[in-house]
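Researcher: Good morning. I'm working through a list of sequences from a screen, and I'd like to move beyond sequence-only analysis. For each chain I'm collecting a predicted structure so we can compare shapes side by side. This is the next one on the list. No need for commentary yet; just the structure.
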Amino acid sequence: MYDINIVIFDFMVKPSYVLCLTTIDLASRADELAAKIVKAKLGACVSIHAIHSVYFWEDEIKKEPEYQLTIKTQATLKGKLQKFILDNHSYDLPEVIFIPILEGATNYLKWITKNTD
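Model: Good morning. Structure tokens for this chain:
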């Protein structure tokens, strides 16, 4: 028999910081969107990763190269960041997903605060 430990997070706790994920089709568009986000102070840092996505779109399974942007920001900026992405994205239905940051290096989290507003 296996001993399985299940961890349940209390999502009633509001995180101070979040990661926002979005994807885009071209490296140049990823760089442009990332720079706009940082310039607007909606994200302190945007990491860009080349990925391969498989998804269902317009009644077909699609397989496409994409670029995933991981945006580090304050939780209070979620609404503004989501609107900014939707207004500046080339996709009809861009991915905008927020993941809470439950813990992090104190100095790094302070740096996020200092570089966003």
